[in-house]
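Input chain follows. Return structure tokens only.
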Amino acid sequence: MSATLNPNIFRAYDIRGVAERDLTTESVVPIANSFAAMLVDAGSRDVALGRDVRASSPRIAEVFRQALSSAGLQVYDLGIVSTPMLYYGVSRFQRGGGVMITASHNPSPDNGLKLLINDVAISGDRIQEIYQGAQAGRKIVADGGAVHTTDILDTYVTELTEQACIGPRALKIAVDGGNGMSGPSITRLLDRLGIEHIDLYCDPDGDFPNHHPDPTQIDTLVDLQRTVLEHGCDLGLAFDGDGDRIGVVDEEGRVIHGDRLVIIYAREILKEVPGARIVGEVKCSDTLFSMIEKWGGDPIMSRVGHSFIKATLRENGALLAGEMSGHMFFKHRYYGFDDAVYAAMRLLEIASNVPEDAPFSTLLADVPDTVTTPEIRVDCPDISKFGVVDSVVSHFRALRPVEDIDGARIRFENGWGLVRASNTQPVLVLRFEATTDAELNAYQSEIMEVVTAAISACDDSV
């Protein structure tokens, strides 16, 4: 094999790097061949292929068409789609696997791969198997493969339209597509549902000319917030680059974070299915878990990452899962994958049943407020970050309750602090919650002192 593969692009739950450095054609060929062999080993006969609108995506897609069909597989090429539409194409038509070419919310020079066997996104050790197979030059050649061009946009929007239970309230909403892949599907869906919408940046553009395509970054929501206020909208919706993250602002332009969105969805599901299991990840507020319990549900805490949370959803028979990052997974009435357009439809169902004289924000009026930090990112080399987290766990376990399913979630009297290693970057991710500012500052100071010392100790040992 002539290409040199960068092992750092093989991440916890996808493959991602700079397209013209890490995912050159020469590098993608052995990756595609390795995944094709994995599909054949799993007994798959067909596979769905999709891509976003980044400049490098057509080149990478052509490599996968060749590799998959040469391995004897039937390749259903969906063309330019969102990641949830690729997942939909696999789940709805029971394909034996899937390949989505996207770098999600990363900058335009990046690209990546989200890979599925049957309808399960591969992660962890399976990602490393792809790398090892690519390094070894693994390749299967078989007759009978073919490529079939398939357009599923109308099928996808039609299913969401038919499922939607829109209430009596007439809504006006603002939509920021972020020049990502959700624009065409969300605008078509809103038109079919008869919902008035003011659109921003809903034409896909892989250069993302208006703002970075990540609604979890508050500065990307400025135009949406202004539009909601100027037009008197009931709420605003934002989408990331590949369409699996949703961002929401209320009628006053206030951001509704992912864990509070899960609260809104959970209340409605628990009315219909008492006792339902609902999953939140380790960065979510304690309020989420306590409200689920209050309403008779069964809350479950998961690791961060779409592959991990989907596995937790599936293994526990849960009906809903959500992340702070805006990934929302509905098994209730849907397939269980993260789909921001579907999540938007479910939110519009709820909003359209709010009384005419009440704002959208009343959906959270009875939910207790806490004091939280945003995500705090601390630089820490990949080689050291997991050792730092282990040191933090060891230190605090002797002092306080620690949940260690994903890093260290350290419990204090009236709150908690989280330290975990990023799955995708050389950083530690920290977050804190308390009932008062003073408590928040105290918890943060105590944990940061330990983290700083652990980083220094790891640096000295390298």
